[in-house]
């Protein structure tokens, strides 16, 4: 594994200057990566990946390039995981050497060799079908009674089939893998709709795992797991989700020396791993988001969803936060002591390419279309922007529910902005969009951001940002008037004025873009890998 001794002097000089404002943590000396297995746990992977998954994919890609053996394990089952992995590898987001598997996938080993892939059609004997508003989905009826809902991929592969009883309660879901074989079956509670039992199948059709579920305020929980051998004989029952997770990790890791890095994007995802303590395993918990109560900026108002992690931080070898500001707030409540560390996200600085032609009128926004991102406020602000700069355009990239998209489009139409504001859908190449634009936007609420990846990527590509000054992140990387503009949270008038100011002053926008690229050198892959090498080396040396 690579063991470069240090970073260029220019970066150390830049870091020393930045550290005077206490926004950028010191850059340690590069260390060799310890000889261990490196396991990363996350909820799931997606082709339309958000900031947490993008961060994980980038981290493992950079570490793999250093010779670090990276393994990603998902905690949520996904029938199409193999398809997602192939897609992520095809477009270069997932490094070839990085292994990916569901945490319990090893239990599916054994059974007979399957035959040819199974092809499913729409029609079923005795049922009539009706296409839904989605051209890939169908409802099926028996003597007028709704019985079945089938959902296909765009290339005709059956994804799942929902079954309904006479009272139109969903009773069962059959999920299918990439080869068309049944891979999981779920049975539901008639009244609540919560999962009650799930059975998982090998390619030859035999069951290898059953999970009994109970419903809680924060979703379904595993009450009991039952394992089956290749002959479908029940061989073992495990009580509780934590015990099942720990047993699976023991089977995967064995006696190997390993790092276990939990990259949860929902706080509940940390809990099963907090109690996992083994002498050969070091555990790292990365906090990708904001730990405060939604809408709060008060350090004392720690969100319930994060309290367990911070109150039990002694159960971790390291808890990694994204900014010095967040670490200071956490330590003001829980004390100044290990294991809190700061490793900011990474952003590859684009080359200073004079051939890049920016659209002087284009503003972009890359975000999930969810309430916490307050995209509506960006739309409202753009009414004022187009009054000041009639040729201004806003392109909003991101994914969200159909209902959310329809509401945003209705708002755009209501304000007469159809020619100026466009919902552009998801992009897997944010860098290209930031290179086209002259300005980008961030309108998140307080209590939701850790260190917005979109801000880093925008600045790294020379695109200045106009952002609400919320915790955490914007003020850590944006120098007001130097590489972007900070405006008070929720102030759409100031937001509009900031956008209009940058669009109307080409020289200011150019200076801010250049300064943004310079600032992002402290968040470069080189610095990022150095920080992780230092943390892993320290953990490896600790008793």
Write a brief structural summary.
By secondary structure, the protein is of the alpha/beta class. It is built from 15 helices and 23 strands.
Entry keywords:
Rossmann fold, Histone H3 K4-specific methyltransferase SET7/9 N-terminal domain, 3 domains, ten-stranded antiparallel sheet, 15 helices
Describe the 3D structure:
There is one protein chain. The protein is of the alpha/beta class and 543 residues long. It folds into three domains: 9-102 and 254-346 and 525-541, Glycogen Phosphorylase B (Rossmann fold); 128-243, Histone H3 K4-specific methyltransferase SET7/9 N-terminal domain (Single Sheet), CATH 2.20.110; 362-523, Glycogen Phosphorylase B (Rossmann fold). 30% of the residues lie in helices and 24% in strands. The protein has 15 helices and 23 strands. It has helices spanning 9-19, 51-65, 81-90, 241-253, 271-274, 304-311, 324-334, 375-388, 402-414, 430-436, 453-460, 474-477, 492-504, 506-519, 525-541; strands spanning 37-42, 70-74, 99-102, 128-131, 137-142, 145-152, 158-164, 170-176, 182-188, 195-201, 207-216, 219-228, 234-239, 258-262, 281-286, 318-321, 340-342, 362-366, 393-397, 421-425, 439-442, 465-468, 484-487. The strands form three sheets. It has a ten-stranded antiparallel sheet with strand order 4-5-6-7-8-9-10-11-12-13, covered by helices on one side. A seven-stranded parallel sheet has the order 3-2-1-14-15-16-17. Strand 22, helix 12 and strand 23 (484-487) form a beta-alpha-beta unit. Helix 10 crosses helix 11. The longest helix is centred in the C-terminal third of the chain and has 17 residues, at 525-541. It is globular, with a radius of gyration of 25 Å. The mean pLDDT is 91.
């Amino acid at each position: 594994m690579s063991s470069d001794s240090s970073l260029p002097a220019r970066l150390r000089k830049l870091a020393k200057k930045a550290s005077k404002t206490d926004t950028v943590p010191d850059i340690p000396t590069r260390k060799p990566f310890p000889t261990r297995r490196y396991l990363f746990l996350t909820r799931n992977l997606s082709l339309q990946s958000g900031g947490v998954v993008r961060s994980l994919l980038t981290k493992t890609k950079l570490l793999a390039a250093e010779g670090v053996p990276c393994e990603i394990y998902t905690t949520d089952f996904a029938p199409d995981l193999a398809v997602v992995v192939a897609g992520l590898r095809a477009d270069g987001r997932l490094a070839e050497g990085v292994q990916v598997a569901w945490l319990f996938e090893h239990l599916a080993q054994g059974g007979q060799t399957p035959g040819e892939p199974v092809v499913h059609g729409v029609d079923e004997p005795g049922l009539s079908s009706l296409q839904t508003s989605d051209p890939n989905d169908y409802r099926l009826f028996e003597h007028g009674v709704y019985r079945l809902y089938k959902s296909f991929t765009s290339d005709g592969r059956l994804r799942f089939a929902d079954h309904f009883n006479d009272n139109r309660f969903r009773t069962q879901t059959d999920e299918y893998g990439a080869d068309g074989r049944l891979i999981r079956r779920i049975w539901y509670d008639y009244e609540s709709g919560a999962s009650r039992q799930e059975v998982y199948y090998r390619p030859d059709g035999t069951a290898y795992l059953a999970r009994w579920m109970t419903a809680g305020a924060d979703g379904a929980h595993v009450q009991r797991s039952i394992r089956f051998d290749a002959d479908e004989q029940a061989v073992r029952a495990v009580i509780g989700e934590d015990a099942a997770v720990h047993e699976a990790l023991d089977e995967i890791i064995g006696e190997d020396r390993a790092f276990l890095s939990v990259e949860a994007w929902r706080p509940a995802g940390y809990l099963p791993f907090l109690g996992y303590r083994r002498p050969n395993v070091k555990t790292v918990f990365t906090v990708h988001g904001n730990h405060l109560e939604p809408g709060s900026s008060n350090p004392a108002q720690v969100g319930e969803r994060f309290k367990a992690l911070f109150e039990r931080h002694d159960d971790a070898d390291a808890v990694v936060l994204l900014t010095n500001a967040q670490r200071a707030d956490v330590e003001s409540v829980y004390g100044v002591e290990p294991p809190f560390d700061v490793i900011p996200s990474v952003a590859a600085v684009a080359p200073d390419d004079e051939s890049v032609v920016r659209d002087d009128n284009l503003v972009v926004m890359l975000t999930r279309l969810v309430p916490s991102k307050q995209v509506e406020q960006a739309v409202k602000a753009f009414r004022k922007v187009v009054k000041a700069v009639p040729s201004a355009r806003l392109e909003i990239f991101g994914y969200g529910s159909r209902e959310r998209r329809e509401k945003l489009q209705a708002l755009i139409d209501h304000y007469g902005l159809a020619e100026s504001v466009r919902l552009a859908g998801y992009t897997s190449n944010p860098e290209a969009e930031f290179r086209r634009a002259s300005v980008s936007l961030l309108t998140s609420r307080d209590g939701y951001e850790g260190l917005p990846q979109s801000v880093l990527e925008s600045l790294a590509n020379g695109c200045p940002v106009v952002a609400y000054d919320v915790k955490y992140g914007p003020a850590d990387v944006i120098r007001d008037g130097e590489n972007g503009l900070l405006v008070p949270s929720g102030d759409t008038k100031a937001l509009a004025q900031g956008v209009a100011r940058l669009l109307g002053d080409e020289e200011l926008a150019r200076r801010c873009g250049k300064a943004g690229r310079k600032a992002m050198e402290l968040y470069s892959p080189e610095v990022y890998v150095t920080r992780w090498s230092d943390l892993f080396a320290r953990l490896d040396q600790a008793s």
